[in-house]
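Same chain as my last thread, 508 residues:
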Amino acid sequence: MHTTNITTKMSKSQATVWFWSAVLTVASLWILLPFLLHTGYKTDVVEMQFHAKEWVIATHKHPMLPVWVLEIINILTGRAFVAPFIAAALCTVVTFFAVWRLARQVLSERLALIGTFSMLPFWSITIDSISYNHNAVLMACWTFTIWIFHNAFQTNKKRWWIAAGLTLGLGLYAKYTILLLAVAVLLYSLWNPRLRQYWKEIGPWLTVSISFVIFLPLLCWFYQEGFGESTSYATRYVHMPGLSGIIAYLFYPVRWIVCILGLLLIAPLLLLIPSLGWKWKIRTPQSDLEKETRQYLLCCIAFPFLVFSLIPLFGVKGYAVHTNTLWYFLGVYLLLRFQRQDSADVFRRTYCWTSLAIFAMVIISVIQAVGSPYLMGTARGFHFPMQELGVKCDEIWYSQFNTPCPYITGSWRYAGNAAYAMKDRPSVHFYYDGIDDLNTQPTGTWSTDEDVNQKGGIILWEATEQTPDWVHRRFPNAEVLSEILELPYKTGAKIPLLRIGIAIVPPP
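reply #2:
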């Protein structure tokens, strides 16, 4: 298949209208759907919400740029339920803007849209976008950084080197894995003979200096809080329960490949068939710009993917979702790498296929929200009776005390949901795990057990036959209430009630 002649070129203004119409429609869909279908948040969003209140620079798990973004939107919207979905939609818009702007520098306007639209039905952009977390902001920072560095490499202008330092520095506050992208860009700049000459000038050093200055407060926080505690959380998934022995070394790599190809990439690859055909043939680059861009994007995709792929080879449970940020330029790269057709008919077919794929994602999202309790017999995070739990906790607290509740603790999922819905929005004092071990320190860096014991608060846990031992061991003054909170999940399916035990630590 050879590149066909373009009889009617798409103008820049037409391409701009197509781009913004499609991307804003997709972003708006995944604001509207959870607003209409959900009554609670997935656990990642619950975690983001109670972190956002504290305005800390980092925790032992992650830096805090994503929660700053969420809290700003909370403030602007009056803490509306849709705030995290708006935050995720903004990340989607920024991501695809960066992909499109880079694509149109090396492809025709039509092909740039085809390469961009091929990723619009991507799982993390659609169904998984309701789970706003650090990966959403990393996605925006990652793609934006790739685009900015591409401009710096092609122009060698100081303003792009400065912008690269700013985006990379901010990206470090989104998630530390953006360091993999930084290494990939560095390796490419040292491998390319033309770009190696830039290191004799001031441009790359501006990028390094600016990104380091931005990262310096976080580095100081690391030093103050202790590197050991932070790195233990960064690698904690290595110690999570899973398979062991020879089975792990065989199963996890296979699982990794199936998840990458099946869950993440099958839709984008199919959407390129109208342009690339069924039998893909290598394309000879027509210019140095096209050749360099192809090499650059391959490096930015392949190097981080190689690092992530090594994890399951060591018998450790790797998560394909962690590679989501790598793929947004994949459609652009494939159009640069293989022979393609560029015509109005190809664009129309791609757009129709993309629309059908997004419609399928909408149907899956509706089934997930409405039908999953009937199909699985259990509720999901977005069926959680968040408002009801918050109201109950307020009633219990204010029936005994006339001061705002300062802390809420225990099961961090229950505490996080309650804190969001309580009118005073108490701080969540939490442990990801190990709450029953007195040697385990709280995960939240803003409170200790002593703070809760001195200032008072509410303790929540999943109700069983007796009160958990850690309640009185950690909080000696806690008064366990005889009442068990029984709340129905927000679904019509017949599933067991949510049963929550509650205790009060009186304020001074």
